Amino acid sequence: MKTIIAGIIFSGMFCLFCGTAFAETLFIEDWEAGIDPLKWETAGDPLPVIFSSGHSGKNALDINGDEVCNSAVCTVQKFDTTCDLVADFWLRGNSSGMTGMTITAGFTTGDLPAIPCEHEGYYKTFVCIQMISSSLGKGIIYTVNDEFVREDYFEAYPDDEWHNFRIEIAPDGIISFYRDDTLKYTTSTRIDLSYYPLTRFQAEGKATFKEYPMLIDDITISTQGVSCIPDYNRDGNVDITDLTIKAEDEINRFKSWMLLCWKPMRDCGDYNNDGIVDEIDIIAKTVHMLNDFFSWCYQCWLPAVISPTGETIKEAFEIMGSLKKEIEREAGL
Hints:
Blueprint: H1 2-9, E1 24-29, E2 40-43, E3 49-51, E4 60-62, E5 71-75, E6 79-80, E7 85-92, E8 102-113, E9 123-134, E10 137-145, E11 150-156, E12 163-169, E13 175-179, E14 182-186, E15 198-199, E16 201-206, E17 215-223, H2 240-262, H3 279-304, H4 310-331
Antiparallel strand pairs: 1-17, 2-5, 3-4, 4-17, 5-16, 6-15, 7-12, 7-17, 8-9, 8-16, 9-10, 10-11, 12-13, 13-14
Helix pairs in contact: 1-3, 2-3, 2-4, 3-4
């Protein structure tokens, strides 16, 4: 088994699961054809509905929840979180509502349900943007809320016009939020993406009166390709410390995935997305992770090192070899 894995890793098949190192559009929705059941799961009572005034076309989606529980749409398609995943979308709130009105858009945890209501069936999000516009308070909240990390950034509600939002998930777990092409917040803590190897995009919320809709439109999910961030610890220097810290993080992420996803046979343990949690998922994740690490080292980190010495290159090889042995040991391969 080790021979097979080594052969795959060193055969040049980098970015095995990302498809390519270039940007790629994965999903588009403008609602002009309505709510396509092949593209969207829906939840709530009442269900979300099409609103006949869109951002760039004739239609948008009205989230249409009631005052008791939220309604939602969630993509059927799943997306790889490790390939510089980006969600770009437009939201329009309505500050005329007299009770709590919200619309939240972001990426889901997959198999962890939201706070249960009798008629809800939507998922918990681990990264999202929430627009609140009611007499109880108005604002936009940029949120990361996973198993270990909770970060929020609040800004005042701008107006009732359409606004563009973007969520970027870097492969190293750093999340960035944008509004109208302006960076609003970047997380200070890395998210362990091992919990969410595959995610869905979801919009959910409340729009308690028909005359005060909360709208989303023109959704694009894409990948920017494999991110090149040689200064992994972001200390202003590209050196062997970046390689060491990244290797340690990769080992810890793999251990977390094994313990919290694969062993309890959760959805996030089905790494190859074949509907079964088994040893093939361990092999797939091992190959993917080691490929990405070696690719980052050779194509990103090493070219950025100023005047690398023979000793630096030797130490880099030792770190890569140790990482491979430690991952194989943890995987039982």
